[in-house]
Specification:
Layout: H1 2-13, E1 15-17, E2 20-24, H2 25-32, H3 36-45, E3 55-57, H4 60-70, E4 84-86, H5 88-98, H6 101-156
């Protein structure tokens, strides 16, 4: 049960930046039980392990956008330097850089959270495809059903009686 709670807490920390699922340096530092500046220092000492698809520094606009989305960032907090955002591969690389038992355990939990998120997104894609297929099938039948109703309605209307002509009829 506690593993599930940890994974759910981690999932809430995953956000989308530049079309990628990432976690921010201060959230990771909190999970690892270290200060953000320690994490950044370790990353800067090993910068060659973190290419652009593993880690990126947020722009001011991206950071402000995240602050607006989540509303939990306090004004001024974490604002001196823009945070680093780590992709799943970057987080995996962090465990080798930080090299502690806690870092390894946290990374395992984070990897599980990313896997669960990927599975959930996959399920949603499958459901969306099934829904579109059902919509297509029902859409075709919908027109057929409407045509049947129109035909039934025409049959239910009393036939028009021929009008009686006024005057003398031979």
């Amino acid at each position: 049960m506690s593993r599930m709670v940890v994974v759910e807490q981690i999932e809430r920390k995953i956000c989308f930046v530049r079309g990628m699922k990432v976690m921010l340096d201060y959230d990771l530092a909190l999970l690892y039980g270290i200060e953000t500046k320690q994490l950044k220092r370790a990353v800067k000492r090993n910068l060659s392990r973190f290419p652009n698809d593993f880690m990126m520094e947020l722009t001011r606009q991206e950071y402000d956008s995240l602050r607006c989305q989540f509303g939990t960032f306090k004004r001024g907090q974490h604002a001196k330097y823009m945070p680093y955002a780590f992709t799943e591969q970057g987080i995996a690389m962090l465990s080798s850089v930080l090299n502690s038992d806690r870092a390894i355990q946290v990374n395992i939990a984070i990897m599980r959270a990313f896997v669960q998120l990927r599975e959930a997104l996959s399920t949603h894609k499958e459901l969306a495809l099934q829904f579109r297929e059902l919509e297509r099938k029902v859409g075709k039948h919908d027109g057929d059903i409407q045509a049947i109703f129109r035909a039934i309605q025409r049959l239910m209307v009393d036939p028009e009686k021929p009008k009686d002509r006024i005057g003398f009829h031979p």
